[in-house]
Amino acid sequence: MAEELISMEDMETIFEVTDSLGIHRESVRVELTKEDPGSIQKVADGMVEITLPVNESAEVFCRKLRIDLEAMGYEPADSVLSYDDDDEDDEDTRPASGPKPRLS
């Protein structure tokens, strides 16, 4: 039996949960292959290690992921992103540059 790999959609589903709990994405390790029954653990270096199960959808598993992470002490974050996502607005307040000098 060939190993089943996780998809980008699986990763997005995992990150929806971990982002909402304020867990930095660089603190999350996800096994690239699925393995039953799946697992969630916090290891000594503070990383959260996740293995998705083969016989359960990522959406169903991530309901358990949220419950287990909250049981580990993670709480919903005030801000999902650790950076200011209003950076685009800053561009609107920049002064317009003057005419470019002509090169002869």
Provide the gyration radius in Å: 20 Å
Globular, elongated, flat, extended or rod-shaped: what is the shape?
globular
Helical proportion? Answer: 25-40%
Sheet with most strands: strand arrangement: 1-3-2
Strand content: 5-15%
- The secondary-structure element order is HEEEHH
In whole angstroms, the N-to-C terminal distance is 70 Å
Residue windows where pLDDT falls under 50 for at least 5 positions: 82-101
> Helical stretch count?
3
Q: What value does the average pLDDT take? A: 82
**Class inferred from helices and paired strands:** alpha+beta
Number of strands: 3
Give the biggest beta sheet.
3 strands, mixed
Write a short abstract of this structure.
The chain has 104 residues and is of the alpha+beta class. The chain is built from 3 helices and 3 strands.
Please give a structural write-up.
- There is one protein chain.
- This protein is of the alpha+beta class.
- The protein has a domain at 26-72.
- Helix content is 32%, strand content 11%.
- The protein has three helices and three strands, in the order H-E-E-E-H-H.
- The chain has helices spanning 8-20, 58-71, 87-92; strands at residues 28-30, 39-42, 48-51.
- It has a three-stranded mixed sheet, covered by helices on one side.
- Helix 1 packs parallel to helix 2 (58-71).
- The longest helix has 14 residues, at 58-71.
- The chain is globular and about 35 Å long.
- Mean pLDDT is 82; it is low at 82-101.
